[in-house]
Amino acid sequence: MERTYLTVTALNRYLKFKFDNDSELKNVLLKAEISNFKRHSRGHLYFTLKDQSSQISAVMFARETQSLKFNPTDGSKVIIEGYVSIYEPYGTYQVYVTRMVTDGVGDLYVAYEKLKSDLEQQGLFTDLHKKPIPLYPKAVGVITSPTGAAVRDVIHVIGHRYPLTKIIVYPALVQGTGATSSIVKQIEKANSDQLVDTLIVGRGGGSIEDLWSFNEESVARAVYNSKIPIISAVGHETDFTIADFVADKRAATPSQAAELAVPDKRALLSTVVDLTHKSTILFEQKISSLKKRTENSTKSIVFTDPSRMFQTKELKTDHFIERLIQQSPIQVLKKNDEHLVEFQRRMKYAFVNSIRAYESQFFRQVDKLELSNPLSMMKKGFSLISKDDQILTSVDQIKVGDLLTTKLKDGRFYSVVKDIEKGEI
Amino acid sequence: MEEKKTFEHALEELEKIVKELESGSLSLEDSVKKYHKGTELAAFCSKELKRAEDVVVKLMNQNTLTDFNVVDEE
Lengths: 425, 74
Hints:
The complex is a heterodimer of chains A (about 425) and B (about 70).
Chain A: H1 8-20, H2 23-26, E1 28-39, E2 45-50, E3 55-60, H3 62-65, E4 77-87, E5 92-102, H4 105-121, E6 139-144, H5 149-161, E7 166-171, H6 179-193, E8 198-203, H7 217-225, E9 230-234, H8 242-246, E10 249-251, H9 254-261, H10 265-298, H11 301-304, H12 306-327, H13 329-372, H14 374-379, E11 384-387, E12 390-391, E13 403-408, E14 411-416
Parallel strand pairs in A: 3-5, 6-7, 6-8, 8-9, 9-10
Antiparallel strand pairs in A: 1-2, 1-4, 2-3, 4-5, 11-12, 11-13, 13-14
Chain B: H1 7-23, H2 28-51, E1 56-61, E2 64-67
Antiparallel strand pairs in B: 1-2
């Protein structure tokens, strides 16, 4: 019978396959103590998990360590969740840790989650119940240990930002036995004293156990019932305590709580300066606009050249006066005089003209007369014949035998009619 | 100034005055009054802010307030 020989690699691969497909090993929950703890430079944690009689290697990769809520060290009692697998190159098996909490705290987490969901359902976290934080508190109450860094930080920050406010420290135990009731008592005391406008309730950072009071229901209820707005300040950047959820405002640290509690003096000063500046500008604008309106009015001719206002009236008056003067008796007379003179002149002119016309007419008549003057006719050879001093104009006036007188230009002669012929000459 | 004013009220009033001046509907007399009041308030606010150098800290101890001195744990 021929034997089959495996390579080491094949064996380890087979074992790894077996481990990885075992449902029990896929999800292992362990309670153990840490030893040989090493933190690799790349962030992976290597350690041994042990109890009184046995041990097993364990690794926690860097990406899983982000969920750690504590700093594991040798001797830490822990509860871990993970899986068991083979590391092929070495043929070693180990626990790959996906989640690790300190033992005993596991129960706290359960309690925390339960309380959180209970209070959330009861509406303690809703924004509806959150009171606004006064902008300019006259006094700020601080419920914390009177000896810790927290109270010092709050005083320091408030002193720098807004020394106008007063700080009243309500000393409280913030860790260990009695801390919960101490915090509750001081919240209630501050509410009955009514000396402060805002409360800061908190403490500096610490382990989950240290902070535990702030996860207690009675503290949560006291925060919720407070008439004074509360800023929670439990020094833990990443985690929220129950008190944080109930508080009107949550600060990550006491210093931050102090910043949220009071305004910044420098910002306020610059606001005051801005407002002063703004009001000065607005006031100057107001004045200058009124000035402009005044100027617009004073620039009117009424003020710049008052005489002009009367000019038209003066013109009118002058006109009237003129008309009045014209109507004065003297003027009327004068005017009449003028009229008379003019009339006389015109009459004279007309008269002269007519005289001249008559004259020329006369001379024309004279000329005509001259033409018809018998004497002048006689000068041309015509003669004037008369009978018994009667000028003859027709042959009918005479008969044969009549004695006629013929006048020529230079004398007369007498003749007897011998014959008479009537008809055209 | 009238009764003892708080910084907060002074600042609020100053803001109100600036708004009123902004509206431009004030008479000259009112403008002068408000502006004057505004400068007073601003001076008061600045003075108040500069006045308090040290914050007053008290300890509530058995129903009595006592002066509080910070004690470092370190």
